[in-house]
Amino acid sequence: MTVQGTLAEVIGRVTGEKVLPQGSGRTDAGVHALAQVASFRTASPIPLRNLLIVLNDRLPPSIRVLRVEEVPDDFHARHSAQGKTYRYRMYREAIVPPFLANFVTHYPYPLDEDAMAAAAGLVIGEHDFTSFAAVDPDSAERSAGSPASIEDASVAVKHATNVRTIYRSEFQRLGDELVYTVRGNGFLHHMVRNLVGTFLLVGKGTLKAEDIPRILAAKNRSSAGATAPAEGLYLVEVEY
Questions:
Q1: Looking at the annotation, which residues are catalytic?
Q2: Is residue 73 part of a domain?
Q3: Taking Cα atoms as reference points, which of 208, 239, 196, 222 lies closest to residue 31?
Q4: Which residues pair with 87 in a beta bridge?
Q5: Same domain, 121 and 52
Q6: Pair 104, 95: CB distance under 8 Å
Q7: Cα(180)–Cα(55) distance, rounded to whole angstroms?
Q8: pLDDT, position 30
Q9: How many domains does the structure of the chain reveal?
Q10: Do the Cβ atoms of 123 and 166 come closer than 8 Å?
Q11: Are residues 103 and 9 in the same domain?
Q12: Fewer C-beta neighbours within 10 Å, C or N terminus of the chain?
């Protein structure tokens, strides 16, 4: 069962109401959400503090509710979002610790990390990210307001095209990990993972950092790199 389905089932058992929580995005298999936001309507008289306790008591250990609060009637977890921040973790040493294996992408092979950092900076600003969007028959519907993965547009109702604005895009070496952080006003389906896959080609020398503007201008998915594995990706913040 999905996180959304599990949460809906537990809320239903607690409140006696049939609800469908709306998230700021949905996670593909293997992707992690540290700061997912979900909204739903309820007429339940249960105090917020008690609702927080009882939900966590009945949810599986892999899903935790960190905070419960009342919001205005027109609030929607996805449509009201103004931006998101994602983080992608790559473990660079030869042997990945077992307790990290499902939470990082293991890449112990040689990479020019400085070149990757230079390439990452070239996507900052407003661009058409068609070259980094998943190619599937449902993409147009998702852009119009029916996201199906964590990387879909955070404010799809405001985005009728594949143009997005990126405010931050950078790599940092944190111990044994190379970490990519990206913040923007919205993201297309698989956009972050496709960016990382392309930056990896720069790191390997298959592409150069200067190729990034050309790839953006091509507006063609085949111009960019392969989709990076899901397990390294995290949603870390949603802005309202």
A1: 28
A2: no
A3: 196
A4: 181, 234
A5: no
A6: no
A7: 33
A8: 86
A9: 2
A10: yes
A11: no
A12: N
Q: Is residue 72 part of a domain?
A: no
Specify if 46 maps to a domain.
yes
Please choose, from the candidates 112, 121, 148, the residue with its C-alpha nearest in 3D space to the C-alpha of residue 133. Answer: 148
Phi, psi dihedral angles at 97 (to 5 degrees): -60, 140
> How many Å is the maximal CA-CA distance in the chain?
60
End-to-end CA distance of the chain: 28
CB-CB contact of 20 with 4 (8 Å)? yes
Enclosing domain of residue 42: 3-58
Those residues whose C-beta lies under 8 Å from the C-beta of residue 14, and which sit 6 or more positions away, are 44, 46, 51, 54, 55, 58
Based on the domain organization, do 106 and 195 belong to the same domain? yes
Q: What are phi and psi of 92, to 5 degrees?
A: -100, -10
| pLDDT at residue 144, as a whole number | 36
12 forms beta bridges with none
Q: Is residue 205 part of a domain?
A: yes
Question: What's the chain's length in residues?
Answer: 240
Question: In order along the chain (240 residues), what is the average pLDDT of each group of 10 residues?
Answer: 92 96 83 94 96 97 96 95 97 97 97 98 98 71 41 49 97 98 96 98 98 98 98 96
